[in-house]
Amino acid sequence: LTKQLRGCINLSNLEDTFYKKSKKNYFVKIYNFLQNVNKIMNILHQNKDVPSILKFKGDNKIVESLMLNIEYKIDLRGNNVIKKGLDEELDTYINIYGALEDILTDYAKILAENYKIKIAVVYQPQLGFLAEVQSKISQWELIYKNDTFFYYKNNITEELDKEYGDIKNNIEDRELEIMLKLKESIDSYKIYFNMLIDYIAIVDALHSLSLYAKRDNLVKPDITNQIEIEKGRNFFYPSNFSVVINKNTILTGPNSSGKTTLLKNIGIYLVLCQMGSFIPAVSAKFPIIDKLLTKIESKESISNKISSFMSDILQIEHIISESTAESLCIIDEMGKGTNIKDGISVFIAIMNYLKKTKVITASNYQEFFMRNDVKDLLNVNYFYVNRLENSMDIKKGIFNNKSSIDLIEGEYKDLTQDVESSNEESIKETEKWAIKKINNRLMNKNE
């Protein structure tokens, strides 16, 4: 099946092949496509265990009919364009053209005997038949010359022009006439070809998903009312995670703890489940949703005069207008583009407005969430996310630590003493050293 699917080429650019490249190759490609489609149909239709979605709903006999029509007229495996024996007039032209070499050799011998010089008679498109010699002959009409030969017209070449001059054009014109009729016949099945393309797209997608599931030992997810992933594989870096989400949820944790990564993974897992794919986890459960709406990135634009906060608001506006009770909204750090007071107000307003919708969001307002009145107001689950070496640690609860400003103020006294003791360094070097010291202490506190 994999081999046949690879042979189902993209048919969208075939018109260019016919009019700009090889017309014969146009029919060869269509024939190969139909041949592979026919083999795929036979493989899937003969297997009783194959689901109905993988069986073609149209008349598969049309595929064989189209193949026979092309095979009957086009010389698919030979050197000719049209099959020999199909058209008597074309065969006559081709036979004459094939004998031209001997005919020209005979005429060249006659001229050579008369003029006692070495002469060849050649055919050149547009110019017709010419006598090719290495010296001037005043009695003949000179057509052109190059560094080696002179090319002339004479009585014999004019006689050849009348008899055989259009033979090449006659062959091409007759071949084109036959191919245009065949193409017109194939074009009448355009709707049928679209059905075949849609069918192959479905087979190819499901086949790819099945190969992926088999290769990586994926599991079939169960359909429930909650999200539950056990040892799911992270799509962004080597690790795994487990999480159970049965109501609207806020993810908390320090920067770079994996909150955004977890949101993205949940979204991808849900899309895979919804499209019928198996899941890279030990086990998984998901609800069926009507829409997946996200606000992950802040798309700031100077040219459009849109700040990161306004970009967030526009994305949230879309989520609010499109969401239903059956939707899942994934929102990352709403309100971070403005001051803390306004950001928290916007965050709470949005969470309250979307409380009848499924919402998973990440936020750094963890100190605010610890207040009992806020917990009661939002009525959501809280998770503390922390990135470990080979996994993501996800626990129920709210991450709590000092803010960066409090941390710097708390360490300022010791830091000042450290700076004053470094008298040997220049002021510039001391500034660099102090900044590095602050960063190191911040990192240690976060860890």
Automatic annotation (TrEMBL):
GO terms, biological process: chiasma assembly; mismatch repair
Matching Pfam families: MutS_V
Cited InterPro entries: DNA_mismatch_repair_MutS_C (IPR000432), DNA_mismatch_repair_MutS_sf (IPR036187), MutS (IPR045076), P-loop_NTPase (IPR027417)
Record flagged with keyword Nucleotide-binding: yes
Gene3D superfamilies in the cross-refs: 1.10.1420.10, P-loop containing nucleotide triphosphate hydrolases (3.40.50.300)
Stored PROSITE patterns: DNA_MISMATCH_REPAIR_2
Record domain DNA mismatch repair proteins mutS family: where: 327-343
GO terms, molecular function: ATP binding; ATP-dependent DNA damage sensor activity; mismatched DNA binding
Domain of life, source organism: Eukaryota
Sorted UniProt keywords: ATP-binding, DNA-binding, Nucleotide-binding
One Gene Ontology cellular component annotation held by this UniProt entry: nucleus
PANTHER family (UniProt xref): DNA MISMATCH REPAIR PROTEIN MUTS FAMILY MEMBER, MUTS PROTEIN HOMOLOG 5
Family under the similarity heading: Belongs to the DNA mismatch repair MutS family.
Record protein name field: DNA mismatch repair protein Msh5
Species the sequence originates in: Spraguea lophii (strain 42_110) (Microsporidian parasite)
